[in-house]
Design a protein that fits this description.
Strand order of the largest sheet: 1-2
Number of helices: 3
Number of strands: 2
Distance between the termini: 47 Å
Shape: globular
Structural class: mainly alpha
C-alpha cells in the first residue's frame, strides 16, 4: 500500500512579501515554497516559535492542508518578529 500526499508547489501569493536576505538586501518572496526556503536556508539564524509556526504553515499550504493566506500571514508575522521584513 502506498501513500500519496498531494502537493501544490507552484502556488503563489497575490502580493509578494519583502524580506531581508542574510546580506541585508531586500528580496521578494512570492509563495509558500519560497517562504519555506527562506525560513530554512536563506534567513539569518533565527530560533523562535513564530519561525517554527511559519515553517509548519507553509508546509501545510503546500500539502493543501492550510490556506495560502494563512501561510502568508504566518510568514509575515515571523519575519516581523525577527525584524527581517524589508
Amino acid at each position: 500500500m502506498s501513500i500519496v500526499i498531494e502537493t501544490k508547489f507552484d502556488v503563489r501569493w497575490r502580493e509578494p512579501v519583502w524580506v531581508k536576505t542574510a546580506a541585508g538586501t531586500p528580496e521578494a518572496v512570492r509563495g509558500p515554497r519560497q517562504a519555506l526556503q527562506y525560513l530554512t536556508r536563506r534567513s539569518p539564524v533565527v530560533d523562535n516559535a513564530a519561525f517554527d509556526r511559519a515553517k509548519h504553515t507553509c508546509v501545510a499550504a503546500l500539502r493543501k492542508e492550510a490556506s495560502c493566506d494563512a501561510a502568508r500571514q504566518s510568514f509575515i508575522t515571523a519575519t516581523r518578529q525577527a525584524h527581517l521584513d524589508a
